[in-house]
């Protein structure tokens, strides 16, 4: 016997109790979240090429869900800004997330070249004394000047990320006359050093956007952004680029290919 039926029998006369109602709501919310995850994957991988989702009744049949569960799942996607309900049309896709791979060391323009043009607005650039955590990771003495660069990065004119970059001054000085508005820093580092980049240590987490970041990225204050911290090394192991990158979470999705190793 299903758990909800046992609860009704225990209550007597089949009358639903408060606990039973809460259980049903929780189960429906669980199913709606599961369905939203499946639909989100289809949205992000081109599963609805016409830009319109099937009718609610069709989704209910396809996924063996109730209409209420389908509506709740669509509400979750609408809250994420991925879909919208248009009278007389149905539920349509209104936003696109762009794939950013985590299994190759590439600049943003290299990563997203198939999706449009990446441009950079250089907001700040110049030498600053290295804070202790920056100095430690770049292997320079604390307080030593490093080149600091703050860039707002756009894809097809839409704000995508806010990048804060620290580079040892001996290398960074060579970047001062370079075209940072249209060229990835990775390409420039390889050009000025004459060496290939080797590897990077990365950390990815969700953080709340501070007032400055939210304003620059044109995102609601307090919204979650994807924070990518990346320390990049030359092929000889020398650290050359420490970045703190805030991505708009509604415009980027991270993916990678992982191999199991014991």
Low-confidence stretches: 4-12
Helix content: 25-40%
What is the overall number of helices? 9
Largest beta sheet: strand ordering: 4-5-6-9-8-7
Overview of this protein structure:
- The protein has nine helices and ten strands.
- The protein has 262 residues and is α+β, with helices and mostly antiparallel strands.
- A six-stranded antiparallel beta sheet has the order 4-5-6-9-8-7.
- Strand 1 and strand 2 (90-93) form a beta hairpin.
- The longest helix is centred in the N-terminal third of the chain and has 27 residues, at 18-44.
- It is elongated.
- Mean pLDDT is 89; it is low at 4-12.
Task: Briefly summarize what is shown.
By secondary structure, the protein is α+β, with helices and mostly antiparallel strands. It is built from nine helices and ten strands. The protein is elongated and about 70 Å long.
Question: What are the salient characteristics of this protein?
Answer:
262 residues; two-stranded antiparallel ribbon; six-stranded antiparallel beta sheet; alpha+beta; 32% strand; 9 helices
Give the topology.
Layout: H1 3-11, H2 18-44, H3 56-63, H4 67-79, E1 83-86, E2 90-93, E3 98-101, H5 108-111, E4 118-129, H6 132-138, E5 145-155, E6 158-168, H7 169-172, H8 185-193, E7 197-208, H9 211-217, E8 224-234, E9 239-248, E10 252-255
Parallel strand pairs: 3-10
Antiparallel strand pairs: 1-2, 4-5, 5-6, 6-9, 7-8, 8-9
Helix pairs in contact: 2-4, 3-4
